[in-house]
Amino acid sequence: MYLENRSYQIQGVRVLDIADQFGLPTYVYDADKIIQKIDLLRSSFTGVDLKIKYALKALSNLSILKLMRSQGVEVDVVSVNEARLAMRAGYEPSQIMYTPSGNRFAEIQEAIALGLTINADSLPLIEQIGQTYGSTVPICIRINPSIIDGGNLKIQTGHADSKFGIPNQYRPQIKALVEQYGIPVIGLHIHTGSDFKDGNTFLKIADVLFDLASDFPDLRFMDFGSGFKVAYREGDHATDLAELGQKVSAAFKEFCARYGRNIELWFEPGKLLVSESGHLLANVNVVKENPTRTFVQVDTGLNHLIRPMMYDAWHDIINVSNPEGPETLYTVVGYICETDTFATDRLLPQVRTNDVLSFENAGAYGFMMASTYNMRGRPAEVMVYDGQAYLIRERETFEDLLRGQIEIEFTELTTI
Ligand SMILES: *Cc1c(COP(=O)(O)O)cnc(C)c1O
Fold first, then answer.
1. pLDDT tens for residues 292-312?
2. Which residues are substrate-binding (predicted)?
């Protein structure tokens, strides 16, 4: 069916075999790719105390978290349930950074009780922590630097109109509040968005944080957040990690010298670590020739990978089962009863019914943003590790979808 030597493989495991063994649609993650990215990030920085805090909202399967932990990567979470998941994977609370976005105070209190590092994202939150805990709970402060970067409006978080963080111009108010309650400030944080177009944005962030640091003598770390750009298609710009690491390391060393001691440098990559590792495999249900275009209809949709519809994201598509077919233009669409387009006028090797397609670069915000819309369960997840494919999440069944529903019984109308 396909040429042996051209068959698409992950660590020597044939993708078609994975499709056969686990069924479709299925998310497959290549553990080697994740380890490579971690190593690359780490080796890009020299002479600084670097900590990688994986933003696990990108992909939080327990086996992925255990892999991260085995590589000495810590975590950033945005909810207490994410923290609980990380702890289930073996993380200590002290290794978990909790970054809320206007979360209710009861949840912040749970996070404090668990012993997470609290990243305060508003003045009211700092005040509430001071009123409730006095000087006993050290915090990190999330600053909004009024810097615009990021792939598109929905993923820009550091501009002046964004809901995230405390605007930099409120520096006097921050200082007054932490002094009033004696709150130890152990970290400063900026996360300016995803997919920076400009490699120098991290240096601009550094300048804001370095300047601010003079108000806070007890810092243990500075957290530069994320924004690493991943190349989704050929010719896409990707963050040059080597260059970034060199520039930021140099600037940070200089800062530490001025500050008077060495503190930790943190990053919170999500996408960078897991995007490329992930593939969404799907079966071709129907190839439908209309007067204007030929549709490839697959047995998945925006319910499983929403990025194309939500962010206009490009995902490369590979025809796994017919890689040598003559190339033709196709519009690849999902089965959801709604406009549900993965790719318009995409050149692909001839697509036939029951071919297997792979949507590439689907590791980050793929499964995690999946829903059960149209009463369709979420896909299975598989990890290829050490040349072997492991099921790491079962496919959702009809029974799973019913769980939690409670039926009210009504008497049927009787006609008179
Ligand atoms: C989402 C998020 C990240 C990760 O962003 P990526 O673009 O996936 O690397 C990091 N930090 C915080 C606070 C986030 O909310």
1. 999 999 999 999 999 999 999
2. 307, 311, 338, 365
Above 80 in pLDDT, residue 5? no
Q: State the Cα–Cα distance between residues 44 and 26, nearest whole angstrom.
A: 33
Q: Which of 268, 295, 321 is the last residue of a domain?
A: 268
Which of these is catalytic: 1, 3, 337, 375? 337
Only one residue has tokens 């990978």, namely 305
Residue to mutate (ligand 1; options 144, 154, 268, 273; most atoms within 8 A of CB): 268
Atom 1, ligand 1: residue with shortest CA distance: 55
Ligand 1 center–CA 69 separation, angstroms: 18
Cα R_g (the chain), whole angstroms: 24
| DSSP states along 74-142 | EEEESSHHHHHHHHHTT--GGGEEE--SS--HHHHHHHHHHTPEEEE-SHHHHHHHHHHHTTSS-EEEE
**Residue 100 contacts residue 121 (beta carbons within 8 Å):** yes
Residue 256 falls in the annotated catalytic set: no
Q: Six-digit token pair at 28?
A: 């497959």
Least confident of 53-57, 242-246, 380-384: 242-246
* 35 lies in some domain: no
Verify that 279 and 210 share a domain, yes or no: no
CA 20 to chain centre: 28
> Quick one: 144 and 244 in the same domain?
yes
Distance, CA of 56 to CA of 70 (rounded, Å): 15
Helix segments in 240-354, DSSP class H: 241-259, 271-274, 307-311
Q: Is residue 413 a part of any domain in this protein?
A: no
Pocket perturbation via mutation, ligand 1, pick of 76, 118, 223, 274 by most ligand atoms within 8 A of CB: 76
Q: What is the tally of structural domains in the chain?
A: 2
How many A from CA of 363 to the centre of ligand 1? 14
What residues make up the domain containing 287? 9-29+275-402
User: Which pTM value belongs to this model?
Assistant: 0.94
User: Last residue of some domain: 268, 300, 316?
Assistant: 268
* Chain length of the chain: 416
pLDDT for the residue 188: 98
Helix (H, G, I), strand (E, B) or coil at 232: coil
